[in-house]
Amino acid sequence: MEAQNVVSIRTLRDINEILAENNLKEIDGEEHRRFRTHSELSATLRRAVVLLANSHTARDKVLAVQQIRQVRERIAKAPVEAQSAPAAERATPATTPATEPAAAAPRTTSVTSRSRAEPATLREPRTPERVVLATDTVTDADLRYISHCAYGAKAALSMALAKSKESDNRPGFYTILMEGADVVDPQARPRIYDWQNRISIMFTKAELVAVAAVFYGYLRECSFSSHSPAHDKGFFLERKDGGIIARMNATGRSLTVKIAAPDMVYMGGLLTRQIRAEYPWLDNEALTGLLRGAFAATPPLANDGPRSATQPGSAAREGNGARQGNAARQGNAPRGPVADQCASCGADVDQRVRDYSQQKYGQTLCLPCQKQRH
Predict the structure, then answer these.
(1) Domain range for 359
(2) I want to staple 236 with a disulfide (CB 3.0 to 4.6 A). Which of 62, 247, 268, 356 is the partner?
(3) How far is the CA of 272 from the CAs of 104, 268, 276, 280, in angstroms?
(4) How far apart are CA 160 and CA 188, in angstroms?
(5) What is the per-residue pLDDT for 141?
């Protein structure tokens, strides 16, 4: 995914030629007049037409055509600014008596009205401008080469573009492969990480959007478990101290990495790309609106069951996992007066468990949720 210098759109004729080549209705005089009075919509149209002219895949073309139709629907409903001032100025010399005082028709008024009536948006600029557009040219074969890594003193965590394998009854989907590795020697410089013994987890569809919600700031934390055929891998993400604390665990192993703000930007870009690659009709505004609406008022996720409903037969396993999680919490009923509630699952916690959890984890967690952190 890279920014490319693409076709320069400078005149209405350039735009109409591209529209005609793609069997779209050309912009007529009335529509052109509306665009001239709405510079923001005019700029949006320019970008969409450039994307259409440089589309290399069917997905890019569909997205560009959709954007063009949307902006033309918006301009059709937008009000048109009055442009009668120039005509009035042309009539003034013939209707105004020669004896009329000069103060009745100051020159500054005519200049102002002319500038308001003739905004230059779709007209050719004095200095030709070049449109720079970020175009997604990543092929499925190149996904594994695009990644970003966050390095810590004791471990490192990487997120890479990936696509799940196809099966007999469902196609593969775009997702993220998250991998973590411990540092070989904390005292060595430069640090070397043990990537040969890394922990690897590929996000399910449900996990992909939940992790994106954490990066976008709509969800404070999320936790998932039961990855791998042995169901012995999991991960936990939490927004804390201006970054995201990421923990990955497998049988007998655990690692923690803080994802700093700059790393959040690049990893968030990878998450966004994969969601939009799977659903190309979503623009940035729609995606952020959906994430906000789905997760902004949602309590922190705590998944005691299996990975997600994308695996065959997972619905039954998920129900069993939920019952096991509830049973564990019920078996962990507070032995003394209730002092707080678990920050992850909401279970009641007595003072002894709360004090221990606050000292070790910095927040109130019940015993089952504490075990998930190990």
Answers:
(1) 332-373
(2) 247
(3) 60, 6, 6, 11
(4) 26
(5) 86
